[in-house]
Design a protein that fits this description.
Elements: H1 9-14, E1 39-45, E2 50-57, E3 77-80, E4 83-87, E5 90-94, E6 100-104, E7 110-120, E8 123-129, E9 135-140, E10 154-157, H2 158-161, H3 164-167, E11 172-179, E12 183-187, E13 193-198, E14 201-206, E15 213-219, H4 231-242, E16 255-257, H5 265-278, E17 284-287, H6 308-317, E18 321-326, E19 329-331, H7 338-344, E20 349-350, E21 360-362, E22 365-370, H8 376-389, E23 397-400, E24 416-417, H9 423-426, H10 430-444, E25 453-456, E26 468-471, H11 479-494, E27 500-501, H12 515-528, E28 534-536, H13 559-562, H14 566-581, H15 583-596, E29 601-602, H16 604-607, H17 617-620, E30 624-626, E31 630-632, E32 642-647, E33 654-658, E34 664-665, E35 668-673, E36 682-687
Parallel strand pairs: 16-17, 16-28, 17-18, 18-23, 23-25, 25-26, 26-27
Antiparallel strand pairs: 1-2, 1-3, 2-15, 4-5, 5-6, 6-7, 7-8, 8-14, 9-11, 10-13, 11-12, 12-15, 13-14, 19-22, 20-24, 21-22, 29-30, 30-31, 31-36, 32-35, 33-34, 33-36
């Protein structure tokens, strides 16, 4: 247990000739150090082998940020102009100039060292040396690398992730990463800023420093002869301080049917009957946007969905759970709740006008004010209205679209005022408040974790602790987007999000009459069957004319309507039936994620740390493990007749088998010759 000594900077100036020993929990100061440019630091014990580090100019405040990632408080700490503290196997020292060094105690290994610290007005940045290492995490991004240190410099402006024009809802920043040197790093503020990995450094910057530079470090224990750091241990340490995911309900492990958009109750029921009549497995069906009469009504349009209770009951008789989208806006002077939300102060305010002006718009859908999810009363009111419109009928699966929250004008800061503060101080974490409101509301109604389901288009540190899964937003219907998805899902998992999915076929640009799309959607099905969640969705070309009341329905998006021919149909149905047999396995993986923070979709090195090829980005970007048993190498190019794969060596008594013919395959690099559209590289790890 570290001892705690506190010595303020003014006292250090008076005693500048002294040299204090640098021992655990004791402050130190170099003899004759100048007072100018001095930095005060605070180190707090937080989590397993973890220390929270805060740095401020001398005389500054250690106040918490408006919203912080850490969900547990420190249990002891030390502060001053030169500090050093040990927590388990992690030791952090900060000198008077603010230089941070971290090492693992058990073997003395250097983990992290800062090289620059800057405060300028309300902005601040800290840069760390980045020697050769692998970096995993930082969220979900449309890049072809799992290792964020492998390619070109990675630069992410946090505000970009919240803007649909930049992200298409497919870019999620989670301020956490793990290094192959054996440490994990969490940026502990939700303020606007950016992170850069490249140029020999890892640099974090914040645009709203009402308090200190604030981050958390954790380390793995030293293991002799280890070939890779303990990423599982780091993920557990991270979950300890931000929250563990909920287990998936069993009914969320199967196939989810969705499209933009089913416009009537009868259409939903007919599609469900179509799956049942054909003997195709289906677990859930979703109703998309503008099923309401007015934005913010939190209710079905009765002209289009006249009997919600009957609809839910009829679906559940067939073993199908209904999921319904929820959007975080109130139609100005349109929603049946508009007067309440405005009068009670439940909406974000435009700082220029001081009123809840239009926040989101698209095409004819204008004048939609944003609900202030940081206001606990607004969260409670929103859930109460949602329950009245949906929950009371048995809806227990919530699809959170627009949960960035998306704005029609780029938000650079100081444009919107919330209960919690200005946008620049916390907006990347807005989604955590939004998921919290529904999670706590459902649990107050008697649902337990694992009995309800939330699917969000955005995430931040700890949203999974509210039962929120993540999907990859509005990816285009392209081969490049399918290829991105292979790395996006792994990146999400290493960022703490175990339950992730994508839109099978991509969201936008898919034409069922196009031969290219007809092939693409089959290959996407094969990939998605080995994602944590298995969901078909998209805006398809074609469809009947809009209905004057219930609007458009767009093109068909059901399996039998997407298949070009019998071979394509059989290929999709084959992986759907395979997924159905794997549901107990997937449920067990989800339970493991909830207990131990291990993702379902695993980079190869997570299962095979001793194999150097499993840390090679050429392998990581093209294949992964789905749990410990299944090696998946999705086909992400058109007209492929063969595909390369790497099979790691297995312990004695185990072997790889090729799923499609049961043939045993030796370890090592291999080229798989595909036997038609229904085949892709899929291997199972079996005991002899």
């Amino acid at each position: 247990k570290a001892t705690v000594s506190v010595l303020n900077c003014s006292l250090l100036r008076r005693r500048s000739a002294m040299s204090l020993l640098a021992v655990s929990g004791v402050l130190f100061c170099a003899a004759g150090a100048a007072a100018a440019g001095r930095i005060t630091a605070r180190l707090d014990d937080v989590g397993q082998d973890g220390l929270r580090v805060r740095l401020v100019p001398e005389g500054g405040s250690f106040a918490d940020p408006v919203v912080q990632a850490l969900q547990v408080a420190g249990v002891g700490g030390v502060e001053g102009c030169g500090v050093k503290r040990q927590r388990g196997d992690l030791e952090v020292a900060v000198d008077e100039a603010g230089r941070v060094t971290a090492r693992r105690v058990s073997d003395g290994a250097a983990l992290l060292a800062s090289r620059a610290l800057r405060f300028a007005g309300r902005t601040a940045s800290v840069a760390f040396e980045a020697p050769p290492q692998e970096i995993y995490g930082l969220g979900e991004h449309k890049i072809h690398e799992v290792d964020m240190h492998a390619g070109a410099a990675f630069v992410k402006v946090f505000a970009d992730s919240l803007n649909y024009g930049h992200s298409q809802g497919s870019d999620v920043t989670i301020p956490w990463y793990m290094s192959s040197l054996g440490y994990g790093f969490l940026w502990n503020t939700a303020a606007f800023g950016n992170v850069t990995v490249g140029g020999g450094a890892i640099t974090w910057a914040t645009d709203a420093t009402s308090g200190p530079v604030d981050f958390w470090l954790t380390a793995t224990a030293f293991t002799p002869n280890a070939t890779a750091p303990g990423y599982r241990e780091l993920l557990r340490n991270f979950a300890d301080v931000v929250g563990y995911a909920h287990p998936l309900p069993e009914w969320a492990t199967g196939f989810i049917q969705s499209k933009d958009r089913y416009r009537t109750q009868q259409q939903v029921l007919d599609v469900a009957k179509g799956y049942k009549a054909r003997g195709i497995p289906i677990s859930m069906i979703a109703i998309d946007w503008f099923h309401w009469a007015n934005m913010g009504d939190f209710a079905f349009n009765p002209a289009c969905f006249p009997d919600p209770k009957g609809m839910v009951e009829e679906l559940e008789k067939e073993g199908i759970v209904l999921m319904v989208t929820v959007w975080p806006y109130q139609g100005i002077n349109q929603s049946q709740h508009w007067d309440e939300y405005r009068a009670q102060g439940y909406l974000a305010l435009n700082t220029s006008s001081g009123t809840p002006d239009g926040y989101w718009e698209a095409g004819p859908h204008v004048n939609n004010a944003l609900i202030d999810a940081t206001n606990p009363d607004a969260r409670a009111a929103t859930f109460a209205h949602w329950w009245e419109g949906y929950g009371q009928y048995g809806v227990k699966a919530i699809w959170m679209d627009q949960s960035e929250p998306d704005a029609h004008v780029y938000i650079a800061g100081d444009q919107w005022q919330f209960h919690e503060g200005l946008d620049r101080d916390f907006l990347p974490s807005w989604v955590r408040f939004w998921t919290q409101g529904f999670s706590s509301g459902l649990e107050q109604k008697g649902y337990r974790p694992g009995e309800y389901f939330i699917l969000s288009r955005n995430a931040w540190a700890g949203t999974w602790g509210h039962g929120a899964s993540l999907w990859s937003g509005d990816l285009p219907s392209t081969w490049a987007a399918l290829s991105w998805s292979v790395t996006m899902g792994q990146g999400a998992g290493m960022s703490g999000v175990p339950h992730w999915t994508t839109d099978i076929g991509g969201y936008s640009g898919g034409d069922p009459a196009s031969p290219d799309f007809q092939e693409l959607v089959v290959r996407w099905f094969q990939f998605a069957a080995f994602c944590p969640l298995f969901r078909l969705h998209g805006h398809r070309a074609g469809g009947p004319p809009p209905d004057p009341v219930c609007a458009e329905t767009n093109g068909d998006n059901e399996v039998w309507n997407l298949a070009k021919d019998r071979a394509h149909y059989d290929a999709m149905v084959a992986v759907m039936r395979l997924r159905e047999t794997l549901r107990p396995y997937i449920k067990a993986l989800s339970d493991e994620a909830a207990a131990a923070a291990v993702p379902l979709m695993r980079p190869m090195f997570l299962e095979f740390p001793a194999d150097p090829a499993c840390r090679n980005n050429a392998v990581l970007s093209t294949q992964y493990m789905f749990g410990p048993e299944w090696l998946v190498a999705p086909v992400t190019a058109a007209n492929a007749t063969s595909w390369e794969v790497h099979l790691p060596a297995l312990p004695e008594g185990e072997q790889w088998t090729y799923h499609w013919n049961g043939t045993a395959v030796p370890a090592g690099p291999a080229r798989v010759h595909l036997g038609g559209i229904g085949e892709f590289p899929l291997f199972r790890r079996r005991s002899l």
